[in-house]
Amino acid sequence: MIQVKEKMNTSYVKTITLVVALANKxxxxxxxEEIINTNITWDKAHWGISPGKLAKALVLSTFTDxxxxxxxxxxxxxxxDLRYLxxxxxxxxxxxxxxVGRALERIGESDVNRPYETLAIAALQKYNIPTERIHSDTxxxxxxxxxxxxxxxxxxxxxxxxxxxxxxxxxxxxAGDCQLVMGQMxxxxxxxxxxxxxxxxxxxxxxxxxxxxxxxxxKSSGLKNSIYVADCKLVTRELIERMNKPESKVxxxxxxxxxxxxxLSKRMVExxxxxxxxxxxxxxxxxxxxxxxxxxxxxx
Length: 300
Prior knowledge:
CATH topology of the largest domain: Nucleotidyltransferase, domain 5
């Protein structure tokens, strides 16, 4: 534990756990508050404490007693030195579910992906985190019940922005489930660089178009030698041509689709087994269930 004693009032003593102090330091170094405040619409004259500080308090509260619901955030923060972590505004204005909800509402009305992706890039640059590989993939989240948008009293603009929970073929191989699609990009260390919720009918090809846009943004931020890693849905004529443009060339690793170029993958596998010339690579992983790997000795 770290004890922080305020000079203004020696009777005011609060404790801060080491993990909270570390999180606070990192958020300061990444300009967390400033990134939140500059990416949403708000009027300083009508806010006693900024949305950035409220968002920071929400993040720091997740390091406290998880048995207390976030709707009682003031109790989660009751043992923290908010003057030290947040600033004087935290002592003059309430940090409660209502004010934090206002901040989240403004964040939700903005481009919700931009603040996090900006923070992710800032973290990579600040701490010189190696990013030789960027892995991109999707998953599905299933829902139950009826989601009839037509029965909802929404404006045309609200309907346009609304995520559509739609029937689709999910990652558990069940057709017809109501679902959303989640797309995520991570570096080789598992650090999420982008995470987006998308309509339930979004294809992996559409996701790769979006993630390549962000990958180009990463490259312009200094990650020029990164390799883009994705599944076989990346290998389409449109995306291959895009990644081979001289002005925005992308190095990538993927898997040959089963139906690519007159079943090229199947023909190569058959020829490899017919030749029966293999080089034993051994086990790459550890444990009883680790797979053994073979490699073709000669090019086919």
